[in-house]
Amino acid sequence: MRHFILVPVMLAGGLTLSACSDNADETVERAFQDVNVVDETNLNDVMLTVADPNEAVDYFQRAAKDNPDRVDLQRGLAKSLTRANRNTEAVAAWNRVVKMDGAIPDDAVDLADALIRNNEWDRAEQVLDGVPPTHETFKRYRLEAMVADSNQEWKNADTFYEIAVGLTTRPAGVMNNWGYSKLTRGDFAEAERLFGDAIRQDDNLFTAKNNLVLARSAQRNYTLPVVPMTQIERAQLLHTMALSAVKQGDVTTGKALLREAIDTHPQHFEDAVRSLRALEIG
C-alpha cells in the first residue's frame, strides 16, 4: 500500500516542481522585460542628448517602424530630426505626433518650433494659438515672442519675452533675442542694456557680445564694452565695430579699428585685412 501512496505523492511533487519551474520562468521573463524597458528608456534618453543627431534619427526610425503606435518613439524621432536640422522632415514627424493618442501640449509647441525653423511662420502662429493658455512654459513664450516679432507686434513681443525670462534659470539666450528685437526697432539703448544682461548671465555667449558692439556702434560709441573676452574675440569685436563705423560714414574711425583688429588677433586676420585693403583701395 505504501507504494500506491508514494506514487501519487511523487506525482504531486513532480507537478509542484513543474509548476514552480513554470512560475520561475515567467518571473525571470518578466524581470528581463522590466530590465529591457529600463534599458530602452535609458537608451532613448541617451540618443536624444549625447548621440549624433543623425544616428539618433536612424535609431528612432527603426524603433518607430517596429512600434508605429508608440508616441514616445515617434516623439523621439521628431526631436532627433529637429536636432539634426532636418526641418522639413521634423515638421512631418511632429504633425504625426500631435495627432496620436498620448500627445501632450509640449508636442504642439515643438511642432511650432519646427515650423519656425522651416520658415513657416503663419502655420507656427496657428499652432501656438491652439495651445491651451494654461500651458505656460519657457519654450512656448519664447516662440510666441519670436512670432510677435515677425509680425512687428512689438508690445506683444515685449510681454512674451518678459514672461519667458521669468520662466527659466538660463535666460541669456532669450535676453539676447529680446535685445536683437530692440536693435531692429532702433531702440539701441535698450538693446545695449539687454545684451549686457545676457552676457552677465552667460559670459561665453559671443553672439550677445557681437550684438552689444552693434548696439553701441549704432549710437556712434566706438569703444569696446567692458565684458569678458578672449584675444580672438576682442579682434572679432573690433572688426564688427569697424564695419559698423564704415556703414555709418565714419570711415577714418573704421580704418583705425580695422588696423587695431589686425594687430590684436593672435593669427592672421584675413577678413579684417581684406576689409582694410578694400577701404584703402576705394
From TrEMBL:
Residue stretches in coiled coil: none
Keywords: Signal
Signal peptide span: 1-24
Keyword Signal: yes
Pfam families: TPR_16 (PF13432), TPR_6 (PF13174)
Family matches, as PROSITE patterns: PROKAR_LIPOPROTEIN
Name recorded for this polypeptide: Tetratricopeptide repeat protein
